[in-house]
Amino acid sequence: MTSPSLSRGEGFGPLSYARSRLYLGISGVGTAVLAATCLLVFDIPQAGFATTEGLSVGRALFGVGIFFAMVQALFFLFDLLGGALVVRRKDHAPFWLTLWMRGVAVQWVVWMLTAGALMTTARSAGPLATVGVFVGIQLLLAQLRGPLARLIAPLRAHVAPPVFAQAAEMSGIDARRLQVVDTSDEGFVGGWSGILPRTLVVPRRWELLPVEALAAQLARRQAVAASGAHVRGVLGAIGWNTLGFVLVQQLADSTPATAEGLVTLMAGMTLWAFVGVLLLPTPSRAAA
């Protein structure tokens, strides 16, 4: 989703905001799919990473950590184009770079903690327990989406302006469930935070909207919560990821107990996510 102020085809030079995002997304996803395919087809994980459990967890994760950092460096160009140049057209690139480094640092830590948990569990408790840990990590990340977003981005909590209370009453949502945040990112539109839709995060700049338009935005989000679509979406995504987690290990004959298995799993899950991008929108639209 894009913000109301930039979703009407307003141009940034020769390309509109929406078209710039589209081209960037296609090129980024295409690069990720191509890189993951090359990793699997040319068996690069087996050639470049430890394939046995004899290597200690610390040493195995050291190589995996370097690989994670290389992946982030590879996609820096797409982040730069999307975050500061082609799409956003920001004139404060140094400030953007500081935020980017903070974001990828948090991402790297999350990846490493996940890899460590999966590797340790796979070595000590076996495949079934590893699947359970994978599900638990997803639930934890879903619940902590709000805190993680605030850790990465400058989302400053703000007292809700009076117009939000008025719009909340018109839309049938309790104003106490709103969390108004101030951000300079025009693409941020907020959403429900956590697994259960209890806190609705909304951007402060929406106070500039007519109260009827603001009420319509809140009513849409209230409908998503009341219908159960939010919870079903979270649980459906976790189910899809878990299915892919199991299938990739079976098809690639790999295990997250080794560095090679973790990298293979990462590549396989990238392709599985791409399959989800192709297939899941159809039942989602039908459900709506």
Assembly level:
single chain
The strand line-up of the biggest sheet is: 3-4-6-5
What would the principal axes of the Cα set say about the shape?
globular
User: What is the strand tally?
Assistant: 6
> Unreliable segments (pLDDT under 50, ≥5 consecutive)?
1-12
- Structural class computed from helices and strand pairing: alpha+beta
Q: How far apart, in Å, are the first and last alpha carbons?
A: 16 Å
What fraction strand? 5-15%
What does this structure look like?
By secondary structure, the chain is α+β, with helices and mostly antiparallel strands. It is 66% helix and 7% strand. Strand 1 (11-12) and strand 2 form a beta hairpin. Helix 1 crosses helix 11 (259-279). The two termini are 16 Å apart.
Name the descriptors:
single chain, 288 residues, alpha+beta, two-stranded antiparallel ribbon, disordered N terminus
Task: Note the topology.
Elements: E1 11-12, E2 15-16, H1 17-41, H2 44-48, H3 57-74, H4 76-83, H5 93-124, H6 127-143, H7 145-152, E3 156-158, H8 162-171, E4 178-182, E5 191-193, E6 199-203, H9 211-226, H10 229-252, H11 259-279, H12 281-287
Q: Care to give the gist of this entry?
A:
With 288 residues, the chain is α+β, with helices and mostly antiparallel strands. It is 66% helix and 7% strand.
